[in-house]
## 1
Amino acid sequence: MQMLSSDLISELLLGMRIDGVHYNRIQISPPFGVRFGVDPGRAQFHFIARGTVYLRTDGGAVHTLCGGDAVLLPRGGLHSLLSDPGIPCRDVTDFDARMICKRVDDIHVCKTEICRSNDTLIFSGCMEFDLGSMHPLVAMMPEVMQVGDLIDRNPEILPILEAMAREVKAERAGYAGILTRLADVVSASLVRDWVECGCGDAAGWVEALRGPRMGRVIAALHRDPGRNWTVAAMASEMGSSRSVFAERFLAATGVTPLRYVTELRMRLASQWIGRDRMSIEIVAERLGYGSQAAFSRAFKRTIGKPPGAMRDVTPVDEAREIGVA
């Protein structure tokens, strides 16, 4: 399998943001079943500090997680953590929770008759996961990304996992804030490893990225979306005629080159206006539009609403509006 170039990997990951929305430290005695997935469009992270846990997805796939394991579900979705695959589940929101600090709660469901060393310890996070202009990659990622697949290639992740285990178990002062940052680092490392390995078996758009000539064009579009891109200019980047380039680009991505540029610009505009609160005038200028009016017409034609409406939506709503969640 052809790998992605280091330059293109940098382009893919440049806009990556993983921001925790809410976390839970869960100390629970077997048998148990905890269901997650109440936040559609958001990623979910789980770290098992102690015990053996079975992760069951909504489709029925079961993954075994042991102490020190971590997983990222980049698209979230309904799933459960269980002490045994056949255990019935309760939703995580149904358990009583004590707030440790802003964004972090503590859930204790422990039997008094057993030793606390037999409790299972879990640290879970619900996250906003944004790849910027490369957000289409999220739909191509595996349903579950497990840290065990990363350790052999990136052994430096082990000290981070060991630190997480210590913080979950010891509950020292400030541990909640430290854990949230470590969880973000592990999640980002899982994503980077997948991209560095060529994005798995993803086809179509990623296949185009793997081709050195087409990949060079797509990287240039994402690096400089505000340039006056014409089919001729893109064909020149690839080193081919306009007709050959246009045919190959459509076959690889499913859209025409100019449509791709427009959709890329509107995805970026939605994020800059909605998430970063950038002014419409500055966004229009950065994306190469001669006037704010011309940009607004293109935005409404592509997204279906004026750019100012993006200021009133949440990040998850925004992703749905632009077709990336």
Note: Residues 175-196 form the longest helix (22 residues).
## 2
Amino acid sequence: MVQKTMAVLGTGVIGNGWIARFLASGHKVNAFDPAPGAKEKTGKMIDDIWTTLEEFGLSNEAAKENLTFYDTLEEAVKDADLIQENVPEQEVLKKKVLAQVDAATKSTAIIASSTSGYMPSVLQADCVHHPERVIVAHPFNPVYLIPLVEIAGGKQTERSYMEKAEELYESMDMKPLVMKGEIDGHIGDRLMEAIWREGLHIVNDGVATTEEVDKAIVYGPGLRWALMGPFLTLHLAGGKDGMKHMLEQFGPALKLPWTRLVAPELTEELSEKVISGTAEQSGDVPIEDLEHRRDRFLIKLMGLLEEEGFWPAERLLSYDRK
């Protein structure tokens, strides 16, 4: 692996996750965040999860010392090969920061936004120098473990930069999903939002608590989705005729008024139900302990997923039923 220089702008949960992923892969990381205490918070986070990263697997070049904080955005991005933007989800702010990056970094650098909602065409609008290298590279928390990164290009993006980004993320043991177009919320978040909306309605209507909603996913469809996703799971639900029978049998149910296309109003009452419900679920366990438990589980689960493989037909045909 050729060591690269990555610039991370914004060191919240996602930004720090990228820093950890980049460091674990043996790259140099230039970080910038004007928030007071940002450097110290990042240092503590890296120290806290380094054992987890070691368990998951570190590059021979991996070192905490490869991280450098800079006082200005311009210094952080000047020599970077990839700039990963993670500032708050505010359109004006993101466009301003990306325009600053576009003016300050070398022309060959990839400029990637971690945005969970905005389309790349919107974000690259004010980049007047080289908008063709601006993409969305949307990860999932915790970034240092979850392999998926959704890559999308805007109207001005050149395909070559998406391909370079795909290759780079793959070299860090990620699973890039290169989108054929662009859409608000990309793919993963739109699917999660659908479940989130339904969950809020169920809690708001008093049908179930937050714990019961989570239980319904953890011990039900979540187990199957972790291996096959929603479409292949339903393909199996159709029996020997697969999805064809599934659509014939259950397709008419799509016309029934089950789903709520619009989320319920986030009233004080609903907010309190959600806040108190999750507080009761977690009890006195600190967030840090819950994160460590999540990470241990994810490492075990990804090991099993790697063992079983995804769903390419050639892999499934070679599956040993014994």
Note: The longest strand covers residues 148-153.
## 3
Amino acid sequence: MASRRDPAGCRVGLFGVPYDGTTSFRPGTRFGPAAIREVSTGLEAYCPQLDGDLEMIAFADLGAVTIPHGAPEPVVAAVERATEAVLALGLAPLMLGGEHSISSGAVAAVARRHPDLVLVQLDAHADLREEWLGARHSHACAMRRCLEVLPSGTLRQIAIRSGSREEFSELRGSDRLVPIEQMAAALAPLRGRPLYLTVDLDWFDPAVLPGTGTPEPGGFLWGDFSALVEELRHHQLVAADVVELAPQLDPSGVSAVLAAKVVRSLVMLLNGD
């Protein structure tokens, strides 16, 4: 909705990565980018919270990354190249997934431009495993791989509620785990630094977003995301991704609508007005 195909004069470049090769529970996130585009016309272009209108914003939809089937490593490399291409156009990258394993490719490209990059994760899961089911680039290892390409090492994981004993031991021994009620206070000291936001949609409660591969009860609602948006208005958001929508798991289509609304907010934040 309201996007352009020609990136000339645009500030934000949106692209899709239809991949779910390491999905270990319920597949289907490869259909996520197309579903977000399809339902986007059901939203208003205007966002009251941000007082922004997509019709007044120059952003480009650059289509889908051509990815190989099979192992995740070539996919992550393709995502990295695609993100570099978007940055070379002078655009802020906004990636639609696809599963969470793709994020490390985008983070690597953005971190080369911004060595002091801050990574903020919305997710039900810690994603800090070294490997999962024999794959180091599994969706369950997304943040572990991101940390390897994040020179600053600055990661804030907002209200993680699921993971292994080892993952939570690591989280509790670090400054990464941020309770939902401390979200704004924890992020405020990072204002002024470039920020990458990765949104795994299973952060939302499955009552409002059932269309995801690994739903986890006890999640969050739109108002919680709006609170983050309010804080991000004071930050330098330079890139973002929205991943793990499996639209066929929600026959109502509401999950895709919520995902599209997240994307609408992020386009406006990345636009910088």
Note: The helical segments are 32-40, 72-88, 103-113, 142-148, 165-172, 183-187, 222-232, 254-271.
